[in-house]
Amino acid sequence: MRTTTRTAIRTATRTPVDPMAELSDIKNEIVRREIEEFVTRPEEIARNVALFTRAHERMQAIAAGIIEGDDELVDKLTRDALDADHEALEVMDDGLIAGMGVVGIKFRENFIFVPEVLACARAMKAGMNHIEPILSASGLDPIAKVIMGTVKGDLHDIGKNLCIMMLRGAGFEVVDLGVDTSPDAFIDAIEEHRAPIVGMSALLTTTMPNMGKTIEAFVDAGLRDQVLVMVGGAPVTQEFADDMGADGYGKDALACVALAKKLITEKRRNAPP
Question: Does pTM top 0.90 for this prediction?
């Protein structure tokens, strides 16, 4: 396994984005077919086409392995890419995370379900097993620490776990509180880990109000101004998030990562000198 820091620290060499890129320019047939069949929102089509037409063919193959949930293939392709001097960040961003992005879209739109997502998650984990030691050895600081948990009374965690995997891949340190997380457990984690971001998930309409109760508990504990709260889950909407007093809402794992980056950037920009 590679232990050098060079491939993690140096910015990966990337082919410039081609504004005229088209779906047919993606060389990997599996990736091209998946986008054509399952990605329907124009902005997501454009983003994926731009990403994959720029990505090296090895990265496209890794992404295809993720989409198909083939952990043995992803393990081999990731190892081969690193041995061929592709940087860890390139493999993670353009291969592993890019593939999981397509998986997240398919899951959100009900094209695939929990068993398929779990297989894809195992494939990503197989690849990250090679990436994580390189990132750790590089001494790169995490973007920020995030506390994640499914709220009290809710035992569903597949969406939360997908968000955690994507957050970690994007460079965040994540403290996973699991499921059925009480307000007190969130508060204890905030006080212990001093994390600036808290993410709450709910799959049931009956447990959604516990997001608001948890935020109220933060207020009562004098912690609300110290943390940024993001919420998500199948029944959750932007309107609900606003009503609960959350700082942001993410409709899926990709949106969760983008929101976390946005929130921490704004928090640091607005911090007193």
Answer: no
